[in-house]
Amino acid sequence: MRLEKKVAIITGGGGGIGRATAIRFAKEGARVLVADIGEEAGIKTVQLIKEGGGEAEFVRVNMTKPEDVEHMVQKAVDTFGKLDILINNAGVKSEEKKIPDVSLEEWQEVFDINTTGVFLGMKYVIPKMESGGSIVNTASIAGIKGQKLVAAYSASKSSVIALTKTAATEFGKKNIRVNAIAPGIIDTDMVADWKKTNKWPVLSTANALNRIGKPEEIANTILFLASDESSFITGETIVIDGGTLNL
Q1: What's this model's pTM, rounded to 2 decimal places?
Q2: pLDDT tens figures, 146-182
Q3: Which of 28, 36, 111, 143 is most buried, by CB atoms within 10 Å?
Q4: DSSP state of 85
């Protein structure tokens, strides 16, 4: 097993990429703390893991609140005895608007969850990684190329990439690796509204592979980055977009 005896926190673990990653990690031997603001969804992920013979617990967390994040980290240590892996996956999308129409409140809300949440996760997890560890932050291809009508989302995910590089340089000597993933369009709840529009046939095929990605495909890359197989990789952003950026 690739994560045997490892302890992992997965934020946004109640669905989509987070749930797929939590289930995959458990199958690879990790003990998983599923963290999500949605209690019902998070508990469902834990149930699925336990039904598959894995070990997991749930904690409700609002990633914008320092006290919640600190509690999440301490629960992982108290429950499982240590902490090896953080998957900083919780995030939200922007409502589609041009920049002059975006309110400061809307801008701040997206940054609070997508960027500050990642910062807080690392802030409280890193001191607990006494024997080193691996952190994977979820960015987006929108954070690499920019995407019209979602300025806050694009900027927040670009900030995640910068935070990832900074943390990697700060803590490499402590054997803590920090990487990011940049998914393209993935079949999660985040694209549910797009599926109802007439632009979905274009969006769903706008890459070299002519299809959208599956959460399980993203989980495969996260597993690689979290495992010792990627032991000489840090500060990188791995694009998982079916070739979107190559078009």
Answers
A1: 0.97
A2: 999 999 999 999 999 999 999 999 999 999 999 999 9
A3: 36
A4: E
Domains: count for the chain: 1
Q: Alpha-carbon distance 35 to 18, whole Å?
A: 9
Which residues pair with residue 138 across a beta bridge? 181
Which structural domain, as residue segments, surrounds residue 30? 7-246
Residue 194 burial by Cβ neighbours in a 10 Å radius (0-12, 13-18, 19+): middle
Tell me the CATH number at 213: 3.40.50.720
- Dmax (CA) for the chain in angstroms is 51
Sheet bearing 7-11, strands edge to edge: 55-60, 31-36, 7-11, 85-88, 133-138, 176-183, 237-240
Catalytic residue status for 124: no
Among candidate residues 25, 80, 124, 153, the one labeled active-site is 153
Residue 80 counted as domain residue: yes
- What is the pairing mode between strands 31-36 and 7-11? parallel
